[in-house]
Design brief:
Elements: E1 4-10, H1 18-33, E2 39-44, E3 49-52, E4 68-70, E5 77-80, E6 84-90, H2 99-116, E7 122-124, E8 127-132, H3 157-160, H4 178-181, E9 185-195, E10 198-206, E11 226-227, H5 230-234, H6 240-258, H7 266-272
Parallel strand pairs: 1-2, 3-4, 9-11
Antiparallel strand pairs: 2-6, 3-5, 6-10, 7-8, 8-9, 9-10
Helix pairs in contact: 2-6
């Protein structure tokens, strides 16, 4: 990897409109492809906005017609807004490009970052991003405050009934209440694009946002889990600016240590061992 530089586009009152940041991504992407700039990570907050990746289906969008920005990244629909640390690493990868390895590196940097604040997170197979694991279904206590779920013989209607829409069934099923239900809950999401061997888009870590914004959509297309934030899990207030330097350190360390190389071609390895 080349030297990694960070560019702070704007936080708090200087949060950057999504389309403006997207245009800046495209500019830096072109410059990185031409080797005019080193690997670059744009860090910022956005004003509230829903964005939909290429795999988003209509039934996952807001029911109330709230506008959504359709983008050219992978993944599905999500929300960005105040209290969420967004990073757009624009990096030149070796060929053939290993997208999965790139995603794993971003996850690792965020896992290490929140660990420094005292929170243990993990990956879930088949679901990108950084997760806080919930209790086993059979061990989940009845939540207070009216959040009492009775799934009978542990049948969750969110996944068992194709016609069931949790957005129409109150706070009991809201993604933002997953912590009270002790379900798996996503702390950080990842959606990327690789064009001409250079990455775009990236990650969003929920530091201290209003997670009820996620209740209007099916976040990342996942119906049987929810969302959380670093502040909620730690039980204390924490700001995006407090997290930025820690994330920068771990992202730089992970990328520097990775020494990404083109994947071996299986037939070549077999020939070498013959």
């Amino acid at each position: 990897m080349s030297e990694l530089r960070y560019v702070h586009l704007g936080f708090g009152a200087d949060a950057v409109e999504y389309r403006e940041a997207w245009q800046e991504q495209r500019r830096v992407h072109a410059a990185r492809f031409a080797d005019e700039v080193p690997d670059t990570c744009l860090l910022l907050e956005h004003p509230p906005v829903y964005t939909a990746g290429r795999r988003t289906v209509e039934s996952e969008r807001p029911l109330d017609g709230t506008p959504v920005v359709d983008v050219d990244r992978g993944g599905k629909i999500t929300w960005h807004g105040p209290g969420q640390l967004v990073g757009y690493p624009i990096l030149k990868l070796p060929r053939p490009v290993d997208v999965v390895a790139h995603v794993r590196r971003l996850e690792e940097a965020m896992i290490r970052t929140v660990a420094d604040f005292g929170l243990t997170t993990t990956r879930i197979e088949g679901r990108s991003g950084v997760w806080v694991l919930g209790d086993p279904v059979e061990d989940r206590p009845a939540a207070g405050g009216g959040l009492t779920l009775d799934f009978g013989p542990r049948v969750d209607p969110r996944v068992a009934d194709e016609e069931f829409d949790p957005r129409l069934n109150g706070p009991e099923y809201a993604p933002s209440n997953a912590g009270q239900r002790r379900e798996d809950r996503k702390l950080a999401q990842i959606g990327i694009r690789v064009a001409k061997g250079v990455t775009m888009h990236g990650f969003a870590m929920n530091v201290n946002p209003d997670n009820t914004w996620f209740d209007r959509i099916v976040p990342c297309g996942i119906r049987d889990a929810g969302v959380t934030s670093l502040a909620y899990e730690l039980g204390r207030d924490i700001g995006v600016r407090e997290v930025v330097p820690v994330l920068e350190k771990h992202l730089r360390d992970v990328l520097a240590a990775a020494e990404p190389r083109p994947r071996e071609i299986e037939r070549d390895r077999e020939r070498a061992n013959a």
